Amino acid sequence: MNVETALQRLKEKGYKRTKQRERIVEIFVQQDQYIAAKDILKAIQEDFPGVSYDTIYRNLYLLTEEEILETTELGGEKHFRLGCETHGHHHHFICTTCGKTKSIEFCPMNSINENLKGYDVENHKFEIYGKCPQCH
Amino acid sequence: MNVETALQRLKEKGYKRTKQRERIVEIFVQQDQYIAAKDILKAIQEDFPGVSYDTIYRNLYLLTEEEILETTELGGEKHFRLGCETHGHHHHFICTTCGKTKSIEFCPMNSINENLKGYDVENHKFEIYGKCPQCH
DNA sequence: AATTTAAATCGTAATCATTATTATTTTTTG
DNA sequence: CAAAAAATAATAATGATTACGATTTAAATT
Question: Buried (b) or exposed (e) across B122-132, using 16+ Cβ within 10 A?
Fold first, then answer.
């Protein structure tokens, strides 16, 4: 996913192209890892000193809604990263030190043979936490 | 796990038996589901009107540390439940409406054949979210 | 290009979960 | 009972997230 594709997808839905929104997407394209809202704010303030959390969160949630970003909760904070739809549905190993991830192609939902009759499955989460080779 | 066993385990580690702590464990034994800190507070205030969040969280974390409780993050809030060590390591289906859970005996870590050489696995999470038959 | 309008932003305040602090109280042990 | 350690109460502080009114901006329209 690149910046243009993402903004194009938003445009089709009637969302406007703003410099701030553009920059937010850019940051995610540059740093291919989970990032906390406060770090997005910090990064974007170099170009737009006045941005508010309102703008950050509104965009992060919009981008997640439009499936441009993925989200997970790390240490009590929501983190976001570019959704890597390039290789389909998958999960992540997440480094608890640097936040970098490694894709895990295996999805446990495919292997599950529990009886979930009567249960309406909406979502699932499979994440492995630990130290990546660099942080080990 | 019953109240006595839990408090006994704490005693062995040198932790004291207090009425508040006792009541907290009791609540978890009675309600076998994930509960948010604020709901524990609400429940315990019926007996101890003056309890503070400090007491709640200190005990929740202590009980988690001592592996009497398990924890997960739901909607931006930490939730706790009695650890069901009776049937070993397992995962959960969690109802997004009532919070009740169904145990999933399958653990994806047993089935994983990804190459995680060089990665130090500390933890993992596999949770399925949706509606239970009652809330469906 | 100017006008219009809906969307987005800014600046700031409010909310909510969680953590910290200090004085006081309680449990346990000798 | 007395002493020491642990736990609690009351309250304040922190930090993430959400909300809001006024203003600005992007994009569509004339």
Answer: eebbbbbbbbb
**Strand D footprint at Cβ < 7 Å?**
A 11, 16-19, 36-38, 52-54, 57, 61, 76-78; B 14-16, 18, 20-21, 48, 50-55, 58-59, 62, 76
Domain positions in chain A: 3-82, 91-130
Domain A3-82: give its CATH code.
Answer: 1.10.10.10
DSSP letter for A88, please.
-
Q: How far is CA B92 from CA B60, B71, B87, B102, in A?
A: 20, 11, 13, 6
Q: At residue B87, does pLDDT exceed 70?
A: no
Antiparallel, parallel or unpaired: β A120-131 and A101-104: unpaired
Res A30 pLDDT > 90: yes
